[in-house]
Amino acid sequence: MPINNFKEDEETKHVLKVVTVKRLFSYMRGYKKEILSVLGLMLLILGVTAVNPLLIKISIDNYIVAKNFRGLLYIAALAVIINLMAAFCIRKRTQIMGRVSNKVLMEIRQELYEHIQKLSFNFFDHRPVGKILARVIGDVDSLKDVLNNSVITLLPDFASVIVVFIIMLALHARLALTALTLLPFLILGMWFVEVRAHRRWQAMRKKNANMNAFTHESFSGIRVVQSFTAEEQTSKTFHTLLADIKHGFMHAVKLNDMFWPMVEMSWGIGTVLVFYLGVSLLDTGEITVGLLVAFISYISMFWNPIMNLSNFYNQLITNIAGAERIFEILDIEPDLVDEKNASWLPTIQGDVRFEHVTFAYDDDLPVLKDLSFHVREGETIALVGPTGGGKSTIVNLICRFYDIDGGEILVDGYDVKKVTIESLRSQMGIMTQDTFLFSGTIRENIRYGKLDATDDDVVEAAKAVHAHEFIMKLEDGYDTVINEKGSKLSVGQRQLIAFARTMIAKPGILILDEATSSIDTTTERLVQKGIETLLEGRTSFVIAHRLSTIQKADRIFVINEQGITESGSHEHLLKEKGHYYDLYMAQFSAFA
Amino acid sequence: MKRLLKYLKENKWIYGFGVLAMGFGIFMDMFNPIITGRIIDEVIVAGDKEVFKHLSMLLILITIGRAIMGYAKEMFFDFGSVRMITSLRQDIFDHIQSLSYSFFDSKNTGELMTRIKEDADKIWHATSFGVMLVLESFITLVIATILMIRISLSLSIIAFITLPILAYLAIKLERSIGETYERISEQNAEMNSTAQENIAGVRLVKAFAREKYEINKFLKKNQGYYDLNFKQAKIWSIFYPRIEFISNILPVLVIAFGGSLVIGERLTIGTLVMFSGYTQMVMWPMRNIGWLSNVIAEAIASSKRIDTVFACESDIVNNPNALREGEIKGRVEFKHVGLEINGRKVLDDVNFTVDPNKTLAIMGATGSGKSSVINLLTRFYDTSEGQVLIDGVDVKGYELRSLRSHISVVMQEVFLFSDTIEENILFGVKNTTQEDVLTKSSVSAQAHEFIERMDESYSTIIGERGIGLSGGQKQRISIARALAKDAEILVFDDSTSALDMETELRIQKEIKQLTNRTKIIVAHRISAVKEADEILVLEEGKVVERGTHHELLELQGRYHDTFMEQYEGEVAYAN
């Protein structure tokens, strides 16, 4: 799967719309009671709305023509009472529906979010953050009106179309059928428009995601933008992305805007046809003036729900693309999951064994081929070697961030595939190359490593990595609020906080992937001492380029494309005069 | 809000045509009840067949005309609003980009994304449907009123007795929804931020196996979002039925009152039917009032959130008489420079001069102020005391962008865009006249070789923040990017930390060969700084040692200690 970026539209799978719609509405299944009561209320409201013109007809035919003023007053009073009842029903209905549709939205969003948490790096590596975000926030929000109207509009309006049609049939069958002559043409026309509009809305959603991806990058990379004075350039790119949205939108609404005129045409012409027939029927005395007037108001009662329905249909087409994008993610099977009978890994002792491990990212050339080694409890292993040789891959595999293609990885004799991921990773202390801090206080960030840590634990961890001193110098100490890209702290200081976060859990195996690269050597030394006292006798893996960081390791693995080519202590490897010796001499010559 | 009017004004022609189409549509619509009334009075009651033909033809023509006008109206409003929102988004984006570091310190990316996406969407909604419906309702109301008054003044008064009540309800609704919606927008921003950090920091989340914790964190925001939305729905459920009741009861009132007029023989039935046709026409805008107040309230709330972003001003501003263009020689001078951030002294009385073609190196412990020196030079911050000069001119005397265009910085934290490698390297290059800039800078940064080995070479797309590349590869691309910019002053802010020794040495050699440049190197490794013309050692913002490598070694101070730490192994081995 190629890496997607802000310039390229995402590829989406083609799914039948019926399937998507069904799946979307299946979320309402849990609210049968609420929906039934809403439908009940709707029935009452519908009854009142249907009676209103009837009351007008009775007023005109029976009382106004007969000059019965008292009767007219009674009718008016009756109308006020039933409409008050209807208002009460509307209130209840709106409340219940507001709860149901928002709840369903919350559930879909939560399900999507929880599902995303289960996905492996493969998923994240190929998608810009902004595009994933667009689905969790925007696409879910876009379903709100569809859900709400599916109950409020779909069923009641269908019902009212049928009820009104039956009344019309009962009043006069031929007139009723005449009024609907154009309905089949309308349905055909809508279907024709819909097929095309749907694809255009899909495209439009992708353009939105592109914009989201780009804003995310530009704002998180604002320092680069500003220091390279690339504001004009990014502004132009943003402009093109906006233009894409504009064109996508116009392209789609061009079709959507045809809905109303189509409905109005069918309505208007249908009415004229009723007049034609009505007038000729009047001659034969088959109908009364009152009936014809009432019929005309029934025609609008008939077409109003049809208008609503087509509006809903329109909305569905506009927003179903959002649902498709959500379900697409939900359908991605997490490829790294606990095995069925995965056990909880007991407290890690620190014995790590690779046996004939073969691994490749993305079906490419294998990064590791038949790699075997054994690290005993309490050993410190340094991994050195050229970039791309597989150092980071090895530590990633110990934590099971990826599954291997062949061989076995054992921690304390347990196959990492056969224990729960949570039990494995929560006992590992991993410091990665990129330091990521959450927005929040420093205390919260350190506590992330051990959620139930006390304030004293936090301070202890910070002291161990020599972060305490500078934290105390900040105006709010541990309560200083920082964020993802903030400039309140230097990169080295951020690295120290990340260090404290790893240390606080006292992990069974410590993995440092260039974790001290931005820390000066003096501080690094102090940090190392702190770690040694805090994590005495734990197994650790260290990836670093500074030889001063490496040489204290119990064993050093030199890793390149051929696998582990040299291994042994610093002194041992120097005597071997291999690759490590060359590396060392390069550094040595730098001092000369 | 003022800003929105400005955008509306920019698109006044498009909206104008929309209103014109709308006006025609409504105008034609007005004939409908007249014709229907005439059909009832003249054809149905009086039996005039001749008139009927004309009248029905007219009805069909009106229907077709309305359909055409309806389509034109929607298209014009859609077009106007999308143009408007495009300008709004562009302006928000450009404004945010122009803000200084202190702004980004307090704003999360997710929040800014909400302003550009969701908040702008709300305004979009209001300026297409919203504006269209407001105008349409208003025009319909006015025309219907005039016609109704002409038919019967007393009936019209009855019909419009409900209007002040509706207006009152609408205003109250707008207020309560507006308040709630502002909070919804805030909550949306928080939810967006939480999700954004979770996805951007997914490596960390997985490394700590914190998925459950993250899910709970999000659940709280999601739940809060639900609570607020439900609150909005509840407010809506209070006002909506009232508005609905008033508009439903209106025709009954009219018939009851009008009926009594007919009974009193002051009105014909045909006129009453015609009048009640107009009441139907008035009911429609009345029903819309609730919905419109809702949409408008949301848009106003969103526009307030957006205005808070526009209200933020950069604290680094251009001097009106700033120097714009022109070459510089690259002499950098710090004179008694001090910097205070949040009451904390970050730099204190820092002095140095670097002449063109010379190299200054800065060392010091984590948090000693090394990066702050660079932030002052590039004016990401302004000095609290003293002066930073380039070619003898205070950096504040340069136009900000021209100043930064003279300085090329390799930043400590590598940030790459999800784009091709080529686009990333040429990011700061304004005019690509030199064709070999790309390869030349990549070769110097020791990146050419591994890039060439990739499937699509320089056209390979890398993920956000350079996902797919190793730390060292990312750093080399970032160095190539700075070299491609080709500025007079070259700054390396601890930018070789992820490189192995050999690569670092090769890059150092390349950099040494670059002439006519002022170089400033921040580093931790002695090997990276020892050939500098002057080395500064910073401690808590103060320069504690300065001199060349040999001078500093002789000093037997902090530099010497660091040297010994890094050299120790070697010495031990030599013995």
| Largest interface, C-beta within 8 A | A-B, 184 and 177 residues
**What is the makeup of the main sheet of chain B?**
6 strands, mixed
Helix content of chain A: 55-70%
* Helix share bin of chain B: 55-70%
Please state the average pLDDT score of chain B.
Answer: 84
Q: State Rg of chain B.
A: 36 Å
Average pLDDT metric of chain A = 84
- Spatial separation of the terminal alpha carbons of chain B: 77 Å
Structural description of this entry:
The complex is a heterodimer of chains A (592) and B (575). In chain A, 62% of the residues lie in helices and 10% in strands. Chain A is α/β, with parallel strands linked by helices and 592 residues long. In chain A, strands 6-9-10-3-11-12 form a 6-stranded mixed sheet, with helices on both faces. In chain A, strands 2-1-4-5 form a 4-stranded antiparallel sheet, with helices on one face. Chain A has a two-stranded antiparallel sheet with strand order 7-8. In chain A, helix 19 (521-534) links the parallel strand 9 and strand 10. The two termini of chain A are 48 Å apart. The model of chain A has no long low-confidence stretch (mean pLDDT 84). Chain B is 66% helix and 11% strand. A 6-stranded mixed sheet of chain B has the order 6-7-8-3-9-10, with helices on both faces. Chain B has a 4-stranded antiparallel sheet with strand order 2-1-4-5, covered by helices on one side. Residues 571-575 of chain B have low confidence and may be disordered. Chain B starts with a helix and ends with a helix. Chain B has helices at residues 2-10, 12-45, 49-98, 101-106, 109-151, 153-160, 163-200, 202-207, 211-263, 269-311, 370-377, 400-405, 421-425, 437-444, 448-453, 471-485, 501-513, 526-529, 549-555, 558-574, and strands at residues 332-341, 344-354, 359-364, 385-390, 393-394, 407-410, 489-493, 518-522, 534-539, 542-547. The interface between A and B is large, with 184 and 177 residues.
